[in-house]
Structure formats: C-alpha cells, structure tokens
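Structure first, sequence second, as always.
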C-alpha cells in the first residue's frame, strides 16, 4: 500500500512535539555509607523475628495503644498543617493541569461589529459614507507549536513539583503521627513525675512534722529542723513545676489534635501506655531514598532538571499559529447567508537572534539544578544522621535503664538505713538529707529514661519513613 504524502508532515509534527531538550536525569549517588554505623553503641542491635521494617509497617500496627489510636485519628482529621499540605497538593495538581493544557490550542468564538466613517475626499463615490462589518467566527489564537519541547519541559516541571508536594504531604502526615505520639508520651511522663513529687512532698511534710515535735521538746537542733524544711520547700516547688509541665504537654497535644483531648483518653503514667511495636532499620541505608521528604527533594531536583530543557528551547525558533473561520457581512441579516464564508490564517515564527537574558536564564536553571542536587544530598545525610542517632539510643537505652533501676534500688536501701541511723541518734540529719536527695533524683532519672525509650522508638519509626509504603 502506498503511503499518502500528506501524512508525513503530520507525523513529523507529532514526532517533534513529543521531544524535549531537558538533560537525561540521573539520580545522584547517596553521600552516606551503604550500611548503618557499627560500634559499642550498636553492638546489641539485632533484627529479631518480631521486628518488621518500618517502611512496611502502617502506623495502626506500629502504635499498639488503643487510646492513642483514637487521638491520632482525630488529629489526622483535624490538624491544620496536614490540611494545608493536602490543599497544596490540590493546588499543584491544578498547576500541572495548566501545564498540560498549554500544549493544546485555545479555541474561541468571536463576534464583532465595526463601523467606520469615510470622508468625501477618501470615498470612491466622492461623498461621505459610513461602512459597517459584521463578523462571527471560531478560531485559534496564538497557539505555540511545541517543536523543541519548551512547553513540554514546563509541563514536566509542574508534574515533578506536584509529585514533590504530594510526598511533602505524606511526610507531614508521618511527622504529625510521631508528634502526637511523642506529645502523648510526654503527658504520661509528666503525670508520672507529678505523682512522684506529690508523694515525695507528702513524705517530706510527714517527716517535717515529726522533726518539728522533736525540736519543740529540745531533742534536736534548729539546723535539723531547717534542713527538713528545705526538703519540703524543694518538693513543693517540684510539684508546682510538674503541674505546669503537665498542663503545657496537654496543651501541646491539644494543638496537634486541633481539639481538646478527652481526659479519659489521656494516660495516667508511662506504665499505662502500651509500648509501640519493635521495628527494624534493615541492613542497608539505601531504604532512606524512599523516605517521603527525600523523595520530595528528588522530585524538586527533577523539576529543576526539566526547567533546563525549557531554558534550552528558548534558544530555538518558536512557531505560533493564529487562525479563524466564520462568516462576514456588511449587514447583520446577511451574516450567515451563502457566500459569506470568511477565513484567516496567520502563522508566525520568532527566531531569536540576540537576547542576553536568555543566556543568563539558562545559566540560572543550571545553578538551580546544582542547588537542588546539594539539597537532595543534604537531606539524605540528615536522614542518615537521624537514624544513626536513634539506633545509638536503641542500642544503649536498655543498659541505661537497667543501671538506673539498680541505682534506684540501692539508693532506696541507703535512704532507709540512713533514716534508721538518724532515728537511733547514730548519724546527723545531713546524711538523711543527702540520701533522700540522691534517691529522689534517681527516681526522676528512671522516669526520664523510660520516656526516652518510648520516645526513641517513635523517632526511629519516623526517621525510617514509617509506613510510607
């Protein structure tokens, strides 16, 4: 079968319109080691059978506390930051739609009326006259045929920016889940510390009353009395401090959830919180490349790469088509009569000769691409550091808790013995004071370590891009 020659220009146009002058994208090498750090801090890190890769574990399975589930779900529905992130995705989707539509011609319907007065010396009849013209047409106005891919590169840039915004939304979601969980744990830790300092205050007040009676009958000196009073005052200050911290942590949680959290959903202490599920960081750091915030920076890099194509195409000719077809007549009643058909076709080609701005614009796009590469590499380095820090805590926190628990038990016995020796008159009250302060500080330290263990599990989940799949 013989090919029809008039199809060749059409095929050529379609082929040329499909090209782009953007450089081929190549993902930069990750500027971090391929394996996680090793050493004393990571010696006890093992991948157990119960552990699962964070990227494959949805938050609903990672978070095992049912009350916390309800709070997170409320936050996902109400949080304003997440709502703004979702709206930004819709905005960039619309911007991408504009980029796609720019490849298509714009068709307009046009109706016009023109009147002109012609003076006698310019009229062919030798007398003044008035001319009228009525037009009705459908046409294409200034449609650029994208031979060198300028518009297509801008469309690709808009697509990559849309994808980056969507990954930023997912990153915001992961951040919100982890922030709500950490705020929930902070409420639990502060409430547990408040219970501790309140009990300590009660104990100190009881001890102070006994010492006051001894002082009143002259059994002890005023020094012992004032030392006991100082402990009461310290405990009172701690109660006020942790009452404040508890209220502030609840306020922070309410802000994240965007509504007051019911009291029955709040934990009484850390022991009432079900710990999150154990997760694994895997054997390779390559999984960081799929973390949403890193994917967002990579899409921004691809957008900068596509923008180079648009800047390159600006050096080549631009073909712009304008045309219309319709009806014209000197009378409105004759506008659509036979023989009134009118048409126009006005192709235009713009050939750049010299425009220094084009060269500088091209240079700017290349620099933007280099900046995007640096930002992409920095995001990987930051993510690697976040995971490495979390793994260091995971590898040592259990040993810290074990040592702290042993210290609490030892100081508890020391405090009890020093109190007994004071009651028998063997030692002064100063030994009781020192032992009590040490025991009290060790108890607060143990609460802080339990909070750090829970909090670090959430941090590791977030740093690994938990649930992004």
């Amino acid at each position: 079968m013989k090919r029809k020659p008039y199809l060749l220009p059409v095929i050529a146009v379609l082929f040329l319109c499909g090209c782009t002058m953007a450089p081929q994208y190549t993902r930069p090498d990750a500027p971090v080691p391929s394996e996680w750090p090793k050493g004393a801090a990571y010696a006890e890190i093992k991948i157990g059978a119960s552990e699962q890769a964070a990227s494959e574990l949805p938050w609903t399975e990672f978070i095992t506390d049912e009350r916390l589930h309800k709070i997170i779900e409320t936050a996902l529905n109400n949080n304003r930051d997440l709502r703004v992130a979702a709206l930004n995705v819709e905005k960039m989707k619309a911007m991408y739609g504009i980029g796609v539509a720019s490849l298509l011609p714009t068709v307009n319907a046009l109706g016009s009326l023109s009147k002109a007065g012609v003076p006698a010396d310019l009229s062919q009849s030798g007398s003044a006259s008035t001319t009228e013209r009525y037009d009705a047409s459908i046409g294409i106005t200034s449609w650029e045929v994208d031979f060198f891919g300028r518009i297509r590169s801008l469309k690709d840039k808009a697509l990559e920016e849309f994808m980056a915004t969507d990954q930023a939304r997912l990153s915001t979601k992961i951040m919100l889940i982890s922030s709500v969980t950490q705020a929930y744990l902070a409420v639990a830790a502060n409430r547990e510390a408040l219970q501790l300092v309140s009990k300590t205050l009660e104990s100190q007040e009881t001890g102070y009353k006994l010492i006051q009676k001894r002082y009143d009958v002259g059994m002890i000196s005023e020094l012992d009395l004032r030392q006991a009073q100082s402990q009461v005052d310290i405990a009172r200050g701690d109660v006020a401090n942790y009452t404040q911290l508890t209220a502030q942590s609840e306020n922070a949680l309410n802000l994240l959830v965007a509504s007051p959290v019911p009291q029955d959903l709040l934990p009484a202490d850390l022991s009432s919180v079900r710990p999150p599920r154990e997760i694994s960081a895997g054997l390779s750091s390559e999984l960081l490349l799929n973390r949403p915030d890193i994917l967002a920076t990579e899409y921004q890099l691809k957008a900068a790469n596509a923008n180079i194509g648009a800047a390159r195409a600006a050096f080549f000719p631009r073909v712009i088509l304008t045309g219309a077809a319709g009806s014209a007549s000197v009378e409105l009643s004759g506008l659509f009569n036979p023989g009134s058909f009118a048409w126009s076709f006005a192709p235009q080609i713009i050939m750049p000769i010299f425009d220094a701005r084009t060269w500088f614009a091209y240079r700017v796009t290349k620099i933007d691409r280099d900046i995007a590469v640096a930002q992409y590499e920095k995001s990987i380095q930051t993510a690697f550091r976040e995971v490495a820090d979390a793994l260091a805590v995971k590898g040592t926190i259990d040993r810290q808790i074990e040592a702290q628990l042993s210290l609490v038990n030892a100081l508890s016995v020391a405090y009890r013995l020093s109190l007994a020796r004071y009651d028998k008159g063997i030692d002064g009250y100063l030994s009781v004071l020192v032992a009590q302060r040490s025991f009290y500080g060790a108890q607060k330290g143990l609460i802080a370590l339990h909070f750090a263990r829970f909090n670090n599990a959430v941090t590791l989940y977030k740093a690994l891009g938990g649930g992004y799949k």
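Margin note: The radius of gyration is 38 Å.
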